[in-house]
Amino acid sequence: MNKPNTRKTVIDPWGSTYVADYAKLFEEFGIEPFDEEIMKRIPNPSKYMRRGIVFGHRGFQTILEAIEKKEPFAVMSGIKPSGPFHLGSLLTASEIVYFQKEFGAKAFYCIADIESYADNRIPYEEATGTAVDNLADILALGLDPKNAYIWRQSQEKRVMDYAFIFGANVTTATMNAVYGEQTNFGLYNSALIQCGDIDLPQHPDFGGPKPVVVPVGLDQDPHIRLVRDLARRLQSTYGFVLPSATFHRLMRGLDGSEKMSKRNPMSYFDLDEDLDSIKSKVMDALTGGRATIAEQKKLGGEPEKCMIQELCIFHFVEEDEKIIEAHQNCKNGTLLCGEHKQEVVDIIFSWIKKHRRKKEKEIDTARKILNVG
Amino acid sequence: MNKPNTRKTVIDPWGSTYVADYAKLFEEFGIEPFDEEIMKRIPNPSKYMRRGIVFGHRGFQTILEAIEKKEPFAVMSGIKPSGPFHLGSLLTASEIVYFQKEFGAKAFYCIADIESYADNRIPYEEATGTAVDNLADILALGLDPKNAYIWRQSQEKRVMDYAFIFGANVTTATMNAVYGEQTNFGLYNSALIQCGDIDLPQHPDFGGPKPVVVPVGLDQDPHIRLVRDLARRLQSTYGFVLPSATFHRLMRGLDGSEKMSKRNPMSYFDLDEDLDSIKSKVMDALTGGRATIAEQKKLGGEPEKCMIQELCIFHFVEEDEKIIEAHQNCKNGTLLCGEHKQEVVDIIFSWIKKHRRKKEKEIDTARKILNVG
To answer: Of A246, A355, A371, B363, which sits with the fewest C-beta atoms within 10 Å of its C-beta?
Structure first.
């Protein structure tokens, strides 16, 4: 904990909230830092990159080269259709849209319904309604379906094909080493299916081998390691380019808990949640305020502890200057918590209302893409 | 060893060659004896049933009831496309044809190419040629393709669907208990795929739940136990009738070795093997002959030890009377080994030549069925 970030970012208020020991990730696990050298080579970095939320990667050089040589590459991610879009889904979805918009990357978006069955016992038919809803969200966020391929795992035989080929090329010892000893056997298969999802952009039907970037949370690194290992082993047969990943720091829970979790409703909100409920979660969120207003005016607040600041940094404020301003005004005691909360509630409400209007118009498109009658 | 069979069969010369301890199979593993009571209820038992080669079953009552009520049922089996049809493949293939011909059962025949990849590293494309050849063999044996469904695992998404559903409904502990700790992870997936194959006849696309019989060697019992366990667990969702199986004793190696094995070419022959090679294997086969002709004429032979007798019993002689006659003539010393071998070589040659003529005509049909250009 409290390891310094390896590069300067526009703003770096998360010294106390690193979810992992970066030095260990870099040294022991072989994740590479997403550093200045990389940032220099990206014409227009995403806000997650600018703000140090993207802290590491595996194999991102293949993407940099594709960007520089203006060669095609793909961006791939997905969602487990087990509930509405929440702040976590928003992060990877926005990164997909970013790579598609900025560099013309073909987007591959997977509805992980085999995983939601294996993990949450949600039958495929039941997952379909959620899938349509989730897909409408990412379309509203700006995903262009004309330069995208969107699939449900349960409907995509090519992904299943990969899963069986991969299963035959992995030892049980490797599966145990990567995933630990799972009681539910289906989770191993979900992992193989996810490796298939990640390699789908390189399937001959989609033009064959090409660089692929998968924006993920650090918790997804086991899949990334496995799929890269498999791509390496099967390279002579399939010609795979090793898939790359960018790793994103995840937001803590709004209430200051270690992470957002469905088991703790005060820690997060869904994009389609009742506005009063969202408001009350934001108003109750952890801040970096002092014991009294007098004290805060004197000492200033501690913005690096504040979830209101994080909501802006991660999701709801596009302009870096506004982020820096709020951060400084908190630190110098001129921006008080109550006032800032009210301001951010307004920003969130406006963002969400606009999103919902767009989303409503995308439901039909989502149904069509998923062949739902 | 040397346990008495539980029922009288037309002929029972295999006292010394039982491959397993029947009492243990029946008592500890829950395999049920294929006994007189069952035989009484089968209008026209197959030669494998009449000759005690079918020694046990799981859940065969469902098939008896379907036969008696003239209700539809299915017979399912398959082949791993890793080489030409051999004496082992012949056995289950013949049982499929029997159930189809005698009772109008719809036949489901699977080309297990996911298994031949996982187990033998044979790429699907390479397996296709073998699959066409294997399929032509079973068509030549009398399989009616109009009342059959034939598929390659790698091409059958419905089977893959089942495999993923099943994987999510089984614990890792169960997989280990049934299959032992496999180094090659793909073998677990092959097992789940095989459970999918066995349940395919009950898929809604094939008219939904119905009794299914799978004629197998005892070595396939793990799959049978797993698929029955899964069918039981998923009954409320899919309405599965528990698949049933008949268990067949397997022939020993021609040279008297414990079993036929590709690693020991003298232990078996393929149906498309060079006739001279087949002849030399038959002429070299283990018999129940005595040290000298004089001794044999005096004491008689030991037909229960003789692989020439087994070749007739298992495969190449349809009439029970001829089997009994050869058995008695050996025992009373009038049929000597050299003479019997020559006679059986002639029988086998005539059988095989006829089979090859039929098979040649079926190659095109086999290609069509498997969509091979």
So the answer is: A371
